[in-house]
Description:
The protein is of the alpha+beta class and 940 residues long. Helix content is 49%, strand content 17%. The strands form seven sheets. Strands 11, 13, 14, 16, 19 and 21 form a six-stranded antiparallel beta sheet that branches. A five-stranded antiparallel beta sheet has the order 12-15-20-17-18, with no helix packed on it. The chain has a five-stranded antiparallel beta sheet with strand order 22-23-29-25-26, with no helix packed on it. A hairpin with a 2-residue loop joins strand 5 and strand 6. It is globular. Residues 143-160, 263-270, 310-320, 769-782 and 936-940 have low confidence and may be disordered.
Amino acid sequence: MEQLLNKTLKKIKIKHYPVLAMVLSIVITSMAFGFTSVAPGGYRMLYINDFYSEYLNFLVNLKHIMQAKQSAIYSWNIDMGMGIMGLNAYYMASPFNYLILFLKENHLIYGMVVIVIIRNGLAAMAAYICLKYIYLKQSQKSDIKLIGVISGNNMLAEYQGKYKMFVIVLVSVCYSMCGWMMTYFFNVIWQDALFIMPLAVYFVFKLVDEGKMSGLIITWAYIFISNYYMGYMVGVCSTFFFIFHLIFNKKSIRDKNNAVIKKKKNKKFTDTHPIVIISLKYIVSAISAILISGFVTLPSLLQLLEKIDDNKQVALSGKMHGFYLMGFINGLYAGTYTSLEKGNPPIYTGLLTLVLVAMLFTNKKVDKKTRITTITVMTIGMIIMMLNPLNTFMHAFDKPDWFNYRYSFAYSFMLAAIAVMAWEKATSEGADLKKIIRFAVKRIAEYYIVYTICVYALFKSGNKGRIEKAGIYQQSVSTFVLNIIVVSLFLVLYLLYEKKRIVKRDAYLLLVLLITVEECVSFGIIVNKEDKESGFFNYEYVQEEVDFLKSEVTAIEAVDKDFYRIESNHIVSHNDPYAIGYRGITSYSSVCNYRLNKVLLGLGIKSNDWHVEYEGGTTFLESIMNIKYRMHFTPRNLFSNIKVDDDFYVEKNDYYLPVAFGVNKDILDFEGTLDKTNSALNKQNDIITAMTGIKETHKETEDYEIKLDNVKRTINKDGTVTYNKINPAVDGRIQYDIPYNDKEAKYYFSYYYDYTKGYYNGTVTTNSIKNNKSITLGDSLIKVPRTIYINDNVSDKEDSLIVTITFEDNSIHLLSEGIYKLDMSDYDKVYEKLNESTLQDIKYDNTSLEGSVNMKEDGVLFTSIPFDKGWRVFADGKAVKTEKLIDGAFLGIKLDKGEHRISFKYYPKGLKAGALLTALGLVMLYILYYIDKNGKVKLR
């Protein structure tokens, strides 16, 4: 066995090391995934957090696009209708995602796990390529000639050099298994950045050292296309590396340009001239890469700029929440995890990397300037994460609500680069390698033991809260034990080698084993923590639910081919309409229509900047939003049951309206859904009046009683209401008792909380006294201002209604609250008016819709299509101006009285211009590649 191992090691040349790094990373990642049941076939897989709620749904739709079942530029199935180039550019543009074409729809998640593992292997390979370049460059600076490593002529030197370079392989593997990857392993949309970052740095160095641009252009163009958001971060971090490398190599750059310096008389100009040339090349490279990605980024950017809320502001002040110095330091060690929402930066890069970095400071041969520079660079990286303005800048001026440090992989790679630099200096001529390693390992061991004792002492001394805020104590005993064991084993391994109990080959093999155990156990700890925080979903169960909903939707569509929307309170995830393929309102994404969502929120529907869930819809909203069918576990009054299956109801809306209908011109002047001082039902009354002229359809009633338990109610001077708990240790309870004596009316409870004063933890329930039924509307729903339909479960007219709010916080501040009654005889008049001029004979496809309408009078054709400048509308064959309706949320056009043929066609703004930019960028790339290849333009 030993002979076979020796032969194998001898056959592995240094030129094979990039592949070896990739293979080792794939093996270790696969073992870690298997260890935690994330591997294909495991019960966890990637089905957690955003992968569950977004990515898998978007992958399913991407497969539909590739199969030509859906459009690549617009979808009716998300956000009530949305241009999806921006969504696909952010979530789905990575070339790796297109491998799903070869997988069955219910096997996509298995394929994505494999793709994650492969990309991790590529990260190790890319890291090795860059780190080897740094190592050899440092060797050349020190006038060290690695005979055999560079030339390959001296076999003995090559064999000795193998072990020196093998450390770089291990550091590369550690980088691929960094804390960022372990924490965000399910965020498949970002993972191309993990292997692009080292390649970008490599080509930045090549540009500075050799003036070559084409490699950097291709690398940047790839990440801009793959994910423009991560492309921004890679570009910014690459620029930092560029600046540092330029500064630290200023002397060598001037030496290479002696010819230019001698020719110029102005010394100041000649000194800066080479730097200017390199900087211009860097800028040209960036411009070329951006141009190449234009066909994706330009239309996506225009769509996003159009959808973004006009009042959305960038938070640039204060300290970044979730950053604590103790937690930052703790993040360097294995198994560290705090929270996906407000956690510390995941900068862990393996104990080997940490020891090598420490060697830079235990090596007496390292000059003072290098040490100070290294500390400065590491500190600058920490400060960027610590200060909110800089952290917000790193996140493209959009402060993240979750995943606070999405660029921390760049910090991990910086540590890997410093580690390789330290390794080169430790193995250079005249350095006492054994002594340097011994001191470094001992210092790390001593530091971590003292650090652990201090944390434990602080906890015992009554500082538990502070330590928990810093994200340290909740790491659990297993995290501390793992690190102490790994450090101890690292020290034992070195002592065995130093005492010549094991040979160098065996020491390196044991080091591989130690790193494998460290990475697997560390990943296991993090995954278990994430499971407790967010919870993994059982994929097989979820797939069964998806298949069930799909069968119900298919049954509806088999008998009704019209254009309509479906909603359900039985959701698998908030993107069911997109994945299953039906037109709905419920949606969830980071690139949704902020303006639309805020309008829906103002009308009482559960929503925020990135999420809409159709809870809070009134009869009026269900009419104008084109909802024809509902799938529920609870039957709705005034909906007609068309199917009942094991208490699952499929119902048809008796007050359904088509996607477009005629309304009064007053709707053009309507504003007010964003007004926080007015209740959602009053706003709907105002819209009804603007559309039809009918006033006060939803009538506020005072025929109810409020019962308070451990709560004091205060009506403020401005009309707002504050509820304060009397005993802070006990939950507060507010109960609204409503006598219900009319089955021909609907009752709604509408509230709007003041979210400027913070979020509230609590539960909202509705009860039917006579039937003793209780519907829990969800934990923490008091966070979301909305309207609740409260007579779903009433069985006869003598029943009574109860709405209960139970809250944990000391107080709740409501901008508005009230019970509203909708008399259906009043609403019949509204519906009759709205139903007079509706779009008929509707024909539609993925990007167009047309039909005929007979306007009873001059007015406006209102549509439930979200406003988007990509829509072109034609009336009787002539282009007409589109109008923004209801605070800019919906699309409409002015129409004269009479019959009209209306046609809607969608084409994204900027697509043609983006394609031209891409063509220009490719031409520039060809020219610059020719220059690089033929050396027509050199630095000097």
